[in-house]
Design a protein that fits this description.
- Chain B: One of its GO terms (biological process) is transcription elongation by RNA polymerase II.
- Chain B: It is found in: Nucleus, Nucleoplasm; Cytoplasm.
- Chain B: Keywords: Activator, Chromatin regulator, Cytoplasm, mRNA transport, Nucleus, Protein transport, Transcription, Transcription regulation, Translocation, Transport.
- Chain B: One of its GO terms (cellular component) is DUBm complex.
- The complex is a heterodimer of chains A (about 200) and B (about 100).
- By secondary structure, chain A is mainly alpha-helical.
- Chain A has two domains: about 70 residues, no CATH class; about 100 residues, no CATH class.
- Chain A has eight helices and two strands.
- Chain A is rod-shaped and about 130 Å long.
- Chain B has about 100 residues and is an all-alpha fold.
- Chain B folds into two domains: about 60 residues, no CATH class; about 35 residues, no CATH class.
- Chain B is built from five helices and no strands.
- The longest helix of chain B is centred in the C-terminal third of the chain and has 27 residues.
- Chain B is elongated and about 55 Å long.
- In chain B, about 20% of the residues are buried.
- Classes of the chains: A mainly alpha (about 200), B mainly alpha (about 100).
- The interface between A and B is large, with 45 and 45 residues.
């Protein structure tokens, strides 16, 4: 077994005689090539043993700490594999856009899901703007005469087309204007609010 | 063991032992020997780790001969040559101060 490093300084510091003795021993040894070979082999073996012991200590340490199994890692599950098929995303789901339409419970129109909430707000007269419009409409209805009402209807036909068509455009089946009557009415409501 | 003792002490004294050891460990790391031995230890531990009577000493006795045979010949040869050259150098070096 190789001696530990601790006694080295002691040996070196003791006295020149021990140093000399070691050197002498060594020199005697070097005279015999056979012994020299043996010595070289033994030195090599001892160093190798040191290296192995180092690994043992390392492994032992990891084991005691509980990190040995962590080195193995966890096998990758097939469920978490990245899917590499064309037209599918990494989860294996089709990339084709699925259009989701909702039917408005108020006017029975198909509205794209993304547009459904704004549509509902407008359609049912709820929300900040809509309620303001509604209250103004109530106020105007009382005061308006028949002639002024008809003018609102006309002007609404121009402007109202764009506003109401938002919903229709966003609806995925691209239905065109449902009825001119409907858009006219909606437009006039909107326009009423704006003018006041 | 006297031969070995003499050599061991002498190389320690001259500081060559550390040099050779560093060389050996770097070579063994380079050629993947370290990983192989570590893997060997782990596989043995997985087999017999459950047995409570399995000791570190048993592991050492089981792994050491295999680890020894796992060392590549090239590394072993290089190390032996290096050791020999160091021996030769020391032989030359130490004669002079001894005589002086």
């Amino acid at each position: 077994m190789p001696t530990s490093a601790a006694p080295v300084p002691a040996v070196a510091a003791q006295s020149p005689t021990t140093r000399k003795a070691i050197a002498n021993n060594f020199r005697e040894l070097t005279k015999d090539p056979k012994k020299l070979d043996e010595a070289a082999n033994q030195l090599y073996e001892s160093l190798l043993e040191d290296a192995v012991t180092g690994i043992f200590i390392e492994v032992h340490h990891l084991r005691k700490i509980g990190n040995l199994s962590a080195l193995d890692g966890v096998a990758e599950e097939s469920a978490h594999r990245i899917c590499d098929v064309p037209n599918l995303d990494i989860f294996g789901v089709s990339t084709a856009k699925k259009a989701i339409d909702c039917t408005c419970p108020n006017c029975d129109r198909l509205v794209a899901a993304a547009r459904f909430a704004p549509h509902l707000e407008k359609c049912m007269g709820m929300g900040r703007i809509s309620s303001r419009i509604a209250s103004r409409r109530l106020a105007t209805k009382e005061g308006t005469s028949a002639s002024s009402n008809s003018s609102y209807v006309h002007s609404g036909a121009n402007a109202g087309g764009t506003d109401d068509e938002d919903d229709v455009d966003w609806s995925s089946d691209k239905r065109k204007k449902k009825s001119t009557q409907n858009s006219r009415n909606n437009g006039s409501k909107k326009n009423n609010g704006k003018t006041f | 063991m006297t031969i070995f003792n003499a050599v061991d002490k002498f190389t320690m004294m001259s500081g060559d032992r550390v040099k050779i050891k560093d060389l050996l460990s770097s070579r063994l790391t380079e050629c993947g020997w370290r990983d192989e031995v570590r893997l060997l230890c782990r596989s043995i531990l997985q087999e017999k780790g459950a047995i409570s009577s399995f000791t570190v000493e048993q592991l050492v006795t089981e792994v050491t001969p295999r680890a020894r045979s796992l060392v590549p010949d090239a590394v072993k040869k290089e190390l032996l040559i290096k050791i020999r050259t160091i021996f030769d150098e020391n032989e030359d070096d130490d004669i002079d101060p001894e005589d002086a």
